[in-house]
């Protein structure tokens, strides 16, 4: 066995695209440049050297231009991407700032609106209550109103035993003028009281008393709506005072033809408050007479627990 290495065996068939060089099999065809020319003089002629130099310079310039173009394209792409991202972020930041500013303005406007409503609410309530007081003052002068109030209030007596009914002097005269009044009021006293306003009444029983004066009803309504004592509000307190002293309003509220000026209401010391908003009336034959036991009665339109 000799020391020379064995040469690789060549395949019997060389396929297309395979070239054998120096015992090595190549899978692909490689470009083989021709060897440089051999000049007999031993040196390159000037013309050929100049041509070769020009060719080298041209190839170098072309390569440099190609590299420069590639660098520019890479820089443009990188710069475009960076600029796009920066511009996108700047736009997002700008829109976010605008949205936050708009949101703050809207919240400020809503807060101002709520503040205006909160500030105006007491004034609106006062206006409604003042209008209500004026309506009560006008309607309380109706000559037939006391009949509705008495008929509505009598069923509220807890034990059914009415001792005394206080009404204004004008309403007292009106009730007594009805036919059958003396017979109907035989079980209790109908007393004229100058402290009771027109249209209202104050009923005294054995176990309770019922204040159905308009001044007391208005005061309770104002207390429930305003959630404070009406006396603490100067405007509402004045309205209550006007209802308490209706004679002082004669110059502002014209007296109805054939009517009698209203008189002050009773003090607000009661255990129960009755509503005057009844649709029930007293006929001339039963004026001031309580309804029969078991008779159907409408529920009161307004009721508050005793203080």
TrEMBL record:
Domain Flagellar assembly protein FliH/Type III secretion system HrpE: 100-220
GO process annotations (BP): bacterial-type flagellum organization; protein transport
Residue segments, region Disordered: 253-307
Pfam families: FliH
Keyword Protein transport found: yes
Sequence ranges of Low complexity compositional bias: 284-299
The keyword Transport is assigned to this record: yes
Family per record: Belongs to the FliH family.
Described function: Needed for flagellar regrowth and assembly.
Name of the protein described by the UniProt record: Flagellar assembly protein FliH/Type III secretion system HrpE domain-containing protein
Species of provenance: Candidatus Tanganyikabacteria bacterium
